């Protein structure tokens, strides 16, 4: 039962407040270490929901935010602009594949997906093509918790209460070696109806689904069909962006490129909430008109907040520096070596890896699911041993800050290794 004083006032996310254990109170954090109020230390091996790519309390990012706070903390972004937003837009366009032209700011991962969906649907509406309204998405998808994002996600227990309010979406399986030919035929048949506005996907890794992974070549084949059939392609890189897959962006593995990309999470290094949606010049030009009705009527009070943009600019500087790029490759190499060392354990069903993302699917009696009961036992084991890992059901995953040391990685790996024997008893 929850008895922590904080729960008297706070409703925590993704938490059954009646049965959950009391939340751990964190008093401070530095680099990869979380310091609890009772003195316990934890290695943050998942970068606090995948956002702290440079570790906690990074001095460089903090300094840039502090300096910005003394210059311009916020200004409405309709009718005004500012240097931090301009600099960030230029940087993002420069490090992404070179066909993106415009940046639209929002607040987080879910809202930047909402922007992308609205942008894609209005793109056709502005041209008088009102029959292109359908969206295609992958099965097991997760794109956020707002209504548009829930609509394009997998229909499951997370959004069951809202199913009657979600718009219809066509879901197809992620591509594999076994289904790719049939899937291409299915997509072509759907496209032939000429009513599909967009295809949204998490490139190469479906995070919340359990770090499900698929190959770039297979996604390329689907994107080629979509483009040939005049379907806009939306890459949701909220989780995979900013180095997670071993490249700055997962779409860098692709030959075919999306028309729209959604970015958030690691963009500010975990300091401030911020989302961005980038699109091609072709999409922007359909909104660039004399008719006021063709305006993209979307915005947030904190759109392009200067503090968040300052944090993102600093985070981008750190990301593209050689030191960070080398560390990303180092973590990826270490993950591979660790995976090979445990791959034959009887309690492991499958190991998946893409860059700094390592996922270990446990071979439990229950089906693989977010609600697999081993999650609670595994989480407590890791916490008791000083490592913060938050399993997705029976999927243990590691997605650390890039500043993690070899000693910290060793600790994470050792705790996972010992957990395999403990959990399989």
Describe the structure in your own words:
By secondary structure, this protein is α/β, with parallel strands linked by helices. It folds into two domains: 5-58 and 322-423, Aspartate Aminotransferase, domain 1; 62-320, Type I PLP-dependent aspartate aminotransferase-like (Major domain) (Aspartate Aminotransferase, domain 2). The chain is built from twelve helices and 16 strands. It has helices at 47-50, 59-69, 83-95, 109-125, 147-151, 180-192, 216-228, 281-287, 306-320, 322-342, 374-384, 406-423, and strands spanning 26-30, 33-36, 41-44, 100-106, 134-138, 170-172, 196-201, 205-206, 212-213, 232-236, 260-263, 275-280, 348-354, 357-362, 387-388, 395-398. The protein has a seven-stranded mixed beta sheet with strand order 4-12-11-10-7-5-6, sandwiched between helices. It has a four-stranded mixed beta sheet with strand order 1-2-3-15. Strand 5, helix 5 and strand 6 form a beta-alpha-beta unit. Helix 3 runs parallel beside helix 9. The longest helix has 21 residues, at 322-342. The radius of gyration is 22 Å and the shape is globular. The relative contact order is 0.15.
């Amino acid at each position: 039962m929850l008895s922590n004083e904080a729960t008297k006032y706070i409703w925590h996310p993704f938490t059954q407040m009646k049965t959950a254990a009391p939340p751990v109170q964190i008093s401070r954090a530095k680099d990869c270490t979380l310091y609890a109020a009772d003195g316990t230390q934890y290695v943050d091996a998942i970068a606090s929901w995948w956002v702290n790519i440079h570790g906690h309390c990074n001095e460089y990012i903090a300094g840039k935010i502090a300096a910005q706070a003394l210059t311009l903390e916020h200004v409405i972004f309709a009718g005004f602009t500012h240097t931090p937003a301009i600099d960030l837009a230029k940087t993002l366009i420069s490090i992404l594949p070179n066909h993106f032209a415009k940046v639209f700011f929002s607040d987080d991962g879910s809202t930047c997906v909402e922007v992308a969906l609205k942008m894609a649907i209005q793109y056709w509406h502005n041209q008088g093509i009102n029959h292109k309204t359908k969206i295609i998405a992958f099965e097991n998808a997760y794109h956020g918790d707002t209504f548009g994002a829930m609509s394009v996600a997998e229909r499951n227990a997370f959004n069951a209460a809202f199913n009657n309010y979600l718009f219809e979406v066509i879901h197809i399986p992620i591509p594999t070696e076994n289904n790719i030919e049939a899937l291409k035929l299915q997509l072509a048949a759907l496209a032939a109806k000429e009513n599909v506005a967009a295809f949204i996907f998490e490139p190469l890794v479906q995070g919340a689904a359990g770090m499900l992974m698929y190959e770039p070549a297979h996604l390329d084949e689907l994107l080629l069909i979509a483009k040939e059939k005049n379907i806009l392609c939306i890459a949701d890189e909220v989780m995979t962006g900013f180095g997670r897959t071993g490249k700055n962006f997962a779409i860098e593995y692709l030959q075919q490129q999306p028309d729209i990309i959604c970015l958030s999470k690691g963009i500010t290094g975990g300091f401030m909430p911020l989302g961005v949606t980038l699109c091609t010049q072709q999409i922007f030009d359909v909104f660039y008109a004399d008719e006021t009705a063709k305006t993209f009527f979307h915005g947030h009070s904190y759109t392009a907040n200067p503090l968040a943009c300052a944090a993102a600019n600093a985070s981008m500087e750190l990301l593209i520096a050689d030191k960070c790029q080398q560390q990303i490759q180092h973590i990826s190499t270490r993950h591979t070596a660790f995976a090979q060392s445990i791959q034959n354990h009887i309690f492991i069903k499958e190991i998946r890896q893409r860059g700094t993302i390592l996922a270990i699917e446990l071979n439990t009696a229950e089906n693989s699911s977010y609600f697999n009961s081993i999650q609670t036992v595994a989480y407590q084991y890791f916490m008791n041993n000083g490592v913060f890992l938050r399993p997705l059901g029976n999927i243990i995953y590691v997605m650390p800050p890039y500043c993690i040391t070899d000693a910290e990685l060793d600790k994470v790996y050792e705790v996972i290794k010992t957990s395999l024997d403990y959990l399989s008893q």
